[in-house]
């Protein structure tokens, strides 16, 4: 009798469980832009690299906030972990554990090759931590925008993919290693023809690659007509370019100013439709805020609104049908677009908790790296 009642209970509960499963929202893959360009005070060549900028040294806000023994901080927020070095394995492992706790699927690691020794910081920092803890990463290639000779750049990217893409923790989509090609909308570093040449060169050496191309343009005709949803677009020549797997763009703040769902929803739906109609995927950015007032003489501040800005971005990207979402950023401290824990907020982990809630996971903060209280 006991077994019969148990079986009956399972039958009765099964439809309810199926209903809850059907109601659970599907979520795109969630990435975050991760920066490896920080040096601590003890770095022999460039101490405090990217924690401070020359313009910060004369900034009235910075000077008012500066503490003894610290550099003039180029950020509007202070890192909970202090002014760390990106090559520090303990900090990188803490970052990975935080990302895992928040439900992130991968870091897209800002890549500059050997510039300022940043390749060594990637290797001893986040790449080693990802390997140790089983977390995915891929390259967010800024050299796609900032390079000299095109031939040197293609060789540089080929070397990097040969080095990293064979790792079991290197992010793959459709079975192919991922590269995000960063571009500035107003003066892009790659033409469609150059992209095709880059793809051909790299894939001849490496094999098939999953290309995410940062590509956004201004539509003056739509803007003049007051069609705000269509005033930003993916250029037609790029939509017709073979070999692009997904389109993307890094930030709204360099293209249009928005922080609320109503300002984002139409634009995000339109851009995603353009990509999907062309048979491509779409990666959309989400921001917790932006504040470059500590080094920029004409600053822009996107208010954080106690986390509502990030929630609105997540909702807009999800409703638009984005295939991938990129948090910009994990730790770009000078622009203060960070979700990495900050001692400047009442709850240092607020933004990671918001990501975890959206992803449907329970957030639990891992211990701080040793020596930090």
Plain-language structure description:
It is a single chain. Strand 4 and strand 5 (176-181) form a beta hairpin. It is globular and about 55 Å long. The model is unreliable at 1-24 (pLDDT under 50). It has 11 helices and 13 strands. The chain has one domain (27-359): Glycosidases (TIM Barrel, Alpha-Beta Barrel), CATH 3.20.20.80. It has 373 residues and is α/β, with parallel strands linked by helices. An 8-stranded parallel β-barrel has the order 1-2-3-5-6-9-10-13, surrounded by 4 helices. Strands 7-8 form a two-stranded antiparallel ribbon. It has helices at residues 2-23, 60-65, 89-102, 118-133, 150-164, 192-206, 220-224, 236-239, 261-277, 308-319, 350-359; strands at 29-34, 106-111, 136-141, 172-173, 176-181, 210-214, 217-218, 232-233, 246-248, 281-286, 290-291, 301-302, 324-327.
